[in-house]
Amino acid sequence: MTATLSPSVAPDGADGRSEAYNEGGCPLDMSRLLIMDFVATLEQEAARTGTLDAGALRAQAEVFLGHLRGLRQPADNCLRLHEQLKWEERRRHPFERLIIRRFSHLLPKRIGDDGVMQGAMLSRRAIPGIAVAITKMIGIDRYRAWETATHEILRRHKAERPGPIDWADVAARRESTQLVELALIRMAPYFGDLDKRVQWLVEVVNSHLGPPQPEDGGRVWVMDGSKARMMLLALYDDLRQRLRDGPVELEATYGSRAMGALRELDAAFARFEQQAVMAVQAPARDLPFGGLL
Q1: Does pLDDT of 10 surpass 50?
Q2: 173 pLDDT exceeds 90?
Q3: CA 20 to 30 Å from 76, out of 131, 208, 232, 239?
Q4: What Rg do the C-alpha atoms of the chain give, in angstroms?
Q5: If phi over 0 gives left and psi between -120 and 50 gives alpha, with beta otherwise, what is residue 122?
Q6: Where is the region Disordered (predicted)?
Q7: Pick from 284, 126, 123, 95: which is nearest to 204 by CA?
Q8: Which of 127-141, 226-240, 269-283 has the lowest average pLDDT?
């Protein structure tokens, strides 16, 4: 018995190859097609005869593999698909998503995610680099542990509220807030020299930019010092408010050492905010060339 593909699943084209086998395709795509065609072959043979001929299936596999070996694959095609697959995988990281919600108002709006329709300062291209920076500061083991804890929060949310995930509800839960606060407090000592750490953050983000996103509208986006500071201000905004409203409770929860680092960071942020206000209020004559630049 020889295993053949039925017309309903047979590859297109005069040479018997499907479109994904055409020169210029990516092995990631072709491997997926190979598996699906193989599954179709198994289903066809099982339905027709009730048995499967292992030798015939091996022969069919060699036909597919022969097509793969004979193709010249442009590296950039595969790289683009690989980056896109990694990007889509990021959306399934709930702990990362909880952190990003703290500055989502600086991101452009897209379906399924928070953001603003116009005037976004940041791009989601920054998210991979931000995740790398956070992981470096809090440690990979702690990051994974908090990711696992967030998955458990998400599991309980789904059990209580079937249907689409309400991320506002997930983020508002006390255990979610504590996980994000733990991460932010853990990172706070690294910002003792804010200017130096901001420059480091800019370099990390720009060296790990994700692929261009449709919601960016074709703009070329890179991180810079001003954007990084605004992101950090948004990231720590709630925690700084808690520091002002309930420092005793905050210290009882996280300890005096953590509070010291947080107070230093709060003071550094306050200096930056004051400088930003002064820059806006400065008369044109105090600016280079009378403010014409």
Answers
A1: no
A2: yes
A3: 131
A4: 26
A5: beta
A6: 1-21
A7: 126
A8: 269-283
Query: Mind spelling out the 3-state secondary structure of the chain?
Result: CCCCCCCCCCCCCCCCCCHHHCCCCCHHHHHHHHHHHHHHHHHHHHHHHCCCCHHHHHHHHHHHHHHHHCCCCCHHHHHHHHHHHHHHHHCCCHHHHHHHHCCHHHCECECCECCECCCCCCCHHHHHHHHHHHHHHHCHHHHHHHHHHHHHHHHHHHHHCCCCCCHHHHHHCHHHHHHHHHHHHHHHHHHCCHHHHHHHHHHHHHCCCCCCCHHHCCCCCCCCHHHHHHHHHHHHHHHHHHHHHCHHHHHHHHCHHHHHHHHHHHHHHHHHHHHHHHHHHCCHHHCHHHHCC
Which of the residue ranges 114-123, 152-161, 185-194, 226-235 would you say has the lowest mean pLDDT? Answer: 114-123
Closest residue by Cα to residue 190 from 135, 117, 271:
135
